[in-house]
């Protein structure tokens, strides 16, 4: 998100009329009566959401059909779902779980509740309420000057956290933090793109009410990595966006309806055409659609091109660097998944070796497009023991990447 995209906003009050766009929202799943959608995540055609903190639904066709995939042992409350690459992480009251098959099966990672927003930065997982993990979520550490927060956003090498005292920033994958603002109050939602950060709170630090005794909220913006901030949509009643999501250079705000910045950056646009009355609790956007989870009426979707008022959807964001992930599960028997990310068109080899250095499997050998990839390794014919997997990548621009990781087969 750059300054030109959000350079001018129209303040929303009852005296000002909004321009509407012709986004046609469609209800994808109604769910039980009065059920609230409290988390949405996805990657490509895969979308998952949570009803009332206790029911997970998944779709592999952008929400055309849904499957109730709850299969989390010993869970009681599902705080959130986060899809990072091909893995879906479930934060629950009983611990952290992960699925590599879009929610059909789940593996146990950690028995301690890893609550809050979950993001990935470099090799680390980061939780807004726990800290960072450098071993795929098995153990966690509070980074230096870490404060328990509500939300996280990643932009390049920076991670931004919304806390009860404003916004903090980490430039080392969550291992240390610096508070960059302590005047905004408790931030409950945050998005970032480039040097621009957009943050919101649902309620101000000291409750403020409109003439109808509705609590007010506000959205803030910084265009210099959090050094300075400006307030917009401040003191609006009761049309108050307070949940945010971003995609590429665009930002979306949900409250009683869904709003987006237009492609020229001239105003917030009301895109609620067809949405039911009531609050939007959570938003999720990908390269083709925007999904809205409501407080009482299930999950809805609109084409991103209609919401943005453009003919073509945005290209999906690409990784900024090569990255080889730790295989999951690990230890494994007899299959495991190895994921990796490519920032550019690359010739890739991914091979598995035993501890003697002998190649036992070639998983990938060829040209691949930029983005997230994964390969399945079946070790049915191999003996228990330690194995190494190595990726060699040569990007079209000449950049070379080599990484080796260890995995354990137990039969």
Task: Walk me through the structure.
The chain is mainly beta and 411 residues long. The chain has 2 domains: 26-308, 7 Propeller (Methylamine Dehydrogenase, Chain H), CATH 2.130.10.10; 323-409, Immunoglobulin-like (Sandwich), CATH 2.60.40. It is built from 1 helix and 34 strands. The strands form 9 sheets. A 4-stranded antiparallel sheet has the order 1-27-26-25. Strands 2-3-4-5 form a 4-stranded antiparallel sheet, with no helix packed on it. Strands 6-7-8-9 form a 4-stranded antiparallel sheet, with no helix packed on it. Strand 8 (95-99) and strand 9 form a beta hairpin. The longest helix has 5 residues, at 304-308. Residues 1-21, 204-215, 234-239, 262-266 and 310-315 have low confidence and may be disordered.
- CATH homologous superfamily caption of the largest domain: YVTN repeat-like/Quinoprotein amine dehydrogenase
Given as residue ranges, the uncertain stretches (5+ residues, pLDDT < 50) are: 1-21, 204-215, 234-239, 262-266, 310-315
% residues in beta strands: over 45%
Cα-atom radius of gyration:
22 Å
Number of domains: 2
How much helix is in the residues? under 10%
CATH architecture of the largest domain: 7 Propeller
Question: What is the residue-mean pLDDT, rounded to a whole number?
Answer: 79
The main pleated sheet reads as:
4 strands, antiparallel
Class by SSE composition = mainly beta
End-to-end separation in angstroms reads 49 Å
Widest sheet, order of strands? 1-27-26-25
Give the overall shape, derived from the CA principal axes: globular
* Strand segment count: 34
